[in-house]
What does this fold into?
Amino acid sequence: MGERNINFDEIIDRKGTDCIKYDFAVQRGRPADILPLWVADMDFKTSSYIEDALVERSRHGIFGYSESGERYFNALASWMRRRHGFEVREEWLIKTPGVVFALAMAVKAYTEIGDAVLIQQPVYYPFSEVINSNGRRVVSNDLILGEDDRYHIDFDDFQRKIVENDVKLFILCNPHNPSGRVFSREELTRLGDICLEHGVIVVSDEIHHDFVFKGEHTVFASIKDEYRDISITCTSPSKTFNLAGVLISNIFIPDKELRKKFRHEVDGAGISQLSPFGITAACAAYENGEQWFEQVLNYIEGNISFVKEYTQKYLEGVKVIESEGTYLVWLDFRGTGLSAYELERRITYKAKLWLDSGAIFGKAGEGFQRINVAAPRAIIEECMERIKKHVLQVEEILL
It folds into this structure.
């Protein structure tokens, strides 16, 4: 039996499924009829191989405490080797319910109350949340938007922030959310050498590692043996296969002492076994989901191209930041002349769109909007039409 779930133009009604994206607009202060393109999950059915595996597992009827075995690790290790050239060992692996949970555990494991943790804004907003909520301080090495519409790293500022704030932990986001940058091996090496020089541990959030359209994803820990010894590499099938709800992520920590500290915090949080459905879904994904993923990757790349072309043609004052990876498009509205307040008002209440405001990604994100384009083309077209008609159109003044 071949892959069945490859009609990505099909619009699937997700309402009434306890879906954060579609069922909780009013509870979160949005209009009931809003079109959501914010949270990073896909509006596509996952691979039919995963669907079938979950159905078969559910038929067993007993869902007790479960643990992954040799099959799980072999499937995962094969994917990491095949797709990313990264050889992993089973003893490195700690499974968690999600990458954000893992980030929080790393903050607690490797820093103390009041310590500074370095990030690169504008960046995925839970980075700041897990730092602040655990009593640590956010320090940002802001990325610089160049004339090429790509973000770049200010390496001098990166080193200066580490020294001035006695930083011991850096959370790297690569591919970068929301900017879409896929950092090159050369860029990662410059970051890594600075971290080595100053004794900084690197938590590398690589959850979007499979979504690369330009360049090549480089696993930070794979570049040098010395990087491997200071790295916590965070991965998950959740973005790649649209499995966020099954709550499973794979965290690789080669260094024994770093792994011991991380495990201590995970144990302290009361996490032991994870869901049998997460184990089942991940096995099926890594073993049989590649055909589905390759096709969804091509479809999303087409959506990104559509957004870029539409923006250039119809949305004066708006720029698409060059997207090298992820299925999240970063739009720069600063050229429209709209204030942040007016931009939000028009997007939410005139266009009836639920996007992610750039401001939540840090001060460097003000004036931007993040759009999730992992949806049928018709939905993306509707989104862009609404921006054209209700956000950029000059409103009539009634006298």
